[in-house]
Structures are given as C-alpha cells and as structure tokens.
Please model this.
Amino acid sequence: MWLAYAGSAALVLWLAHRFVSRIPAAAALVLALLPLVLTGRAVLRGELYGPSDLYATADPWRSLAVSRGGAPTAIPQNPILSDLAFANLPWRAAVREAVVNGRAPLWNRFVLCGTPLLGAAQAGILHPATWLGVWLPLPLSWTFSCAFTLLLGFVSAFLFFSDFGVGANAGADAGVKTSAALVGSAAWGFSTYLVFWDGWSVGPSTATLPLLLLGLRRLARDADRRAVGVTSAALWLSLCGGHPESFFHGAAAGAVWFAWELFPRRGRPVAAARSLAAAAAAGLLALALSGPQLLPLLEAIPRSAEYRARRAAVASSSAPKRQAVPAGEAARRLLPDLLPFAHGIFGKSPVDVARGDGSGMPIGYAGALLLPLALVALAAPRGRLPRGRGIFAALAAAGLAYGASAPGLMHLTERLPGFALALNYRLVFLAPLGLAGLAALGASELSRGDARRRLAVASVATAAALVR
Model:
C-alpha cells in the first residue's frame, strides 16, 4: 500500500509543480512525508487507520467474539468516531463491492431496501482520495484515502502560502520563503479540524480550501487560463469530497477572500470586471466537471430526512436564534481552542460529553506553538510584511466566533441566503486557516534579529497565558 501512496504523492506533487507553482525538491519530500506523521504506521504496516476497536462493542461482531470465547469487550479509545466505523467505512465497502462486481456505485444495497450511494455524496466516490485507492483491500483503501486527504491539504496550503509571498521580505532568500510556506502548510494540515474530520466527507471537502484561495488570488491578479484551471480544480475537489455544506462554506469563504483581493482594483473597473468574468467561468467549469456528482446530489437532498428536519427548524419561530448561544456560553466554548483537552481526552481521561454541537470539540485548535509566530507577525512594523495579516487575523477571529456559536455574528450569518439551513459553527475552519497564515508570516520574519527577540517575548507571554 505504501507504493500506492508514494506513487500518488509523486503524481500530485508533479502536477502541482507543473501546472501551479514550482516546488523545491526538498519541500516536495517534506510535503510527501508530513501525512505519514499521523498515518505512517498504518501505511507502512498495511493496517487500518481508523477506529476498528469500535466493532467489538456492537453486534454482530460482539456476539461473534463472545461465542468464540473471546474476552469481554474493552472500552473503545474514542467512541466519538462511531460514524467512521458504522457509516463511512461501510460506504467504502459498498463502493468497492459494486466496482469489483462491475457495477456503477450508484446504489447501496446493504442498507434496508437500499439507499442512494452516489447521490448521498458522502462516500466521496468521484474524489481522487477514493478512486485512486479503491482497488486496494478495504482497510488499506481507507488508510490510503486518509493519508491522501492530508497530503492534498499540505500541498494546497504550501502552494497558497508560497504564492502569497511569505518570506519575500527584503534580504530574505528562497530558503526562508520555502520554510515559511512549510510552516503555514503544517499549521493547516495538522490543525484539529482537518485531522479530526479526516475520514468523514468533511475532510476532503475542506482540505483543499487554500488551493481555492490561491486560484481566486490569481484570478484577481492575472485572470488567465491557468488561474481559471486552478480555481476550477479546487472547486471540483471540494464538491466531489462529498459534503455539500462544507463546499458551500468554502465557496462563501472564497467569495470573501476574492472580494478582498479585488479591493485594490476598485479604481480599475476594466481589470476588476475581467477578474469577475474569469471567476464566473471557473465556477461554471467546476459545476460542469462536477455534474456526475452534483446532479444526483441535487435530486437526493430534498428527499432526505436531514433536509426536512432543517427546513422545519428554519420555519419555526425560534429559527433566527437556533444556532447562537448566550455570550457567556460562547466564551466557555472558546476554551478548547486554546486548551484542546480542557474537557478530557477520549480513551485517556473522563470526558465531559454533556455538551451541544461545537461546545467541546477543539476543532478551532491548530497548535499553541503557532501563537508566538502569529504574535510576531501582528507586531511586525507596517510595510515589512506582504499585505494580508489583517485578513488572516480577521479569519482567525471569525472562525473562533463561529466555532463558539457566538451571538451577533451567528445571527447575522443565518440571515444570509443559504446559511439558515447550514450548521454554521463548522465555519470554525477559518480559525486554523487564519492562524496558519499569521504563523507563516511570523516565520518569515525570523530571518531578522529583532523578530527573534519578539518571538522570545511572545513565547513567554503565550506560555504564561496558557498556564494561567
């Protein structure tokens, strides 16, 4: 299986190098190895990267083990991953069963009288993370997909931060630029949001968000065919990931980013109009390429129980306030984004499970080591860094507020078209994205002596705040 990952990683890096931006050989090697920090044991030993221990807690596996004189069922390490064991992995099995027997994976015949498989989208049938490894045995196919999803996240972020110009300050060499982009890439790829949702359809639908921002950045700047291709590819990857809500949120974040990129061109209407036309072309191309996934999905969504439940919630009198929580509760929900194990660690310590959506999961966390680097970027003298630290800081703040279901922002968002039906606390992915951007900018500053002194002060301040 490691050969499949090595070959796929080489293909992705070559395509990125050939059609998007130059990637130094050393950086390419680092990007290929970063996903193995988490999945390496499973990849190299041919094991399942997933919660296989959960099967021993449910029938028929539990009864089978007992009938064979097995030991009593052990407490699973992380019961919150039950959807992976009992929904996502079985969907992959259904896809493989159909393909192996020469059928198109349109219908899951193993659930009651059958349910849509392609139309439900969450199996991610048309995403490369699925079809590149579907020929492997089920456990290895799953492990490959998880490693490949992380790889796409790392590569997308590296390309974005490299193009953004981090490390391109006066006197900085190419090595500084590459190192700073790798810092931002690692911050995004190892963020709790991407790591936790790796395996769910949320993961592949969100991992390539930096690639979308890169495409939109180039559309605002050049509006050439390559920019259209990058943007279309990013949209296609997100939609084929299988989670339309994450695609919607990512596209909305991209629209905000695109508007920010276009702002300096407000005095050049012709150039701005050309960029808008190119962006529309990229969107139409992505929709056309995604037709085999999009059309079945659009037919299946109105027939789903989830859609009907959300429509009923929106129609109720409490709909405008259904996702926000009081300010005090929102402040409490911010704690795990600074101290990710504030509510306990599954499999290691007691966990506070009596909480609502978004209140106890540290899905806005990207690593305390990034905070001093972010502070260095925010404290840098004006003009020393490329334009962007303001938007990155705004994204980080907005993501934390969304993850905490903060009133005001959540109320406003729910009134926007389409957002009333979405679970908008999942926009918390903006927090690790913004923090990754600030950390990359801060890392690029470390080639300067005064920045190293600011890093030391910021590290002490961060440690003191966290300990307190």
Strands lie at 107-108, 115-116. The chain is about 60% helix and 0% strand. The longest strand covers residues 107-108. The mean pLDDT is 87.
